[in-house]
Amino acid sequence: MLSLLSKQFYMKIYLLLLSFILIAAGTHAQNKEDSIIFKTLTKQAEAWNKGDLKGFMDTYWHSDSLMFVGKNGVTYGWEATLKQYQKSYPDTASMGHLHFVPVQLKRLSVLYYSLTGKWHLTRTIGDLEGHFTLLLKKVKNRWLIVLDHSS
């Protein structure tokens, strides 16, 4: 027969283990979302490196409310952002090879993440690089860029 102290000890161990399991499950869920967002960035770079600007833009929110902030100021809307990319990068030589380096991914809420990082274009006509901050929103079970500030 277990003494009262033994029962309390085992109950505390049980509760401690349960806490660890719940914390691990929450971390796993967040890591799953992190992984999906990083895959979104990888998909974006792969499309860019194929010269596929529309595929690159597939990771952006297809809405007039999309906001892109760059060296030319603020651009609103998916179509206008695509046109700006097409104007700035009219061919594969100007597009080069894109590489992202994430710096910080932060969960803001169940529906929003912020992602800060570096971008680098390796090009025969001269390399370019800068930084970005993205606001991603979960829309219809997909993480989409709703705000992009790139410099």
Blueprint (SSEs and pairs):
Elements: H1 4-49, H2 53-57, E1 67-70, E2 73-76, H3 78-88, H4 92-95, E3 97-107, E4 112-122, E5 128-139, E6 142-150
Parallel strand pairs: 1-6
Antiparallel strand pairs: 1-2, 3-4, 4-5, 5-6
Please tell me about this protein's structure.
This protein has helices spanning 4-49, 53-57, 78-88, 92-95; strands at residues 67-70, 73-76, 97-107, 112-122, 128-139, 142-150. The protein is of the alpha+beta class and 151 residues long. It has one domain (7-150): Nuclear Transport Factor 2, Chain: A (Roll), CATH 3.10.450. It has a six-stranded mixed beta sheet with strand order 2-1-6-5-4-3, covered by helices on one side.
Brief summary:
This protein has 151 residues and is of the alpha+beta class. The protein contains 4 helices and 6 strands.
Main pleated sheet:
6 strands, mixed
Identify low-pLDDT runs. 7-29
Structural class: alpha+beta
End-to-end Cα distance, whole Å, is 70 Å
Enumerate how many helices there are, as a single number. 4
Task: Please state roughly what percent of the residues sit in beta strands, choosing from under 5%, 5-15%, 15-25%, 25-35%, 35-45% or over 45%.
Answer: 25-35%
Task: Looking at this protein, list some descriptive labels.
alpha+beta, Nuclear Transport Factor 2, Chain: A, 34% strand, globular
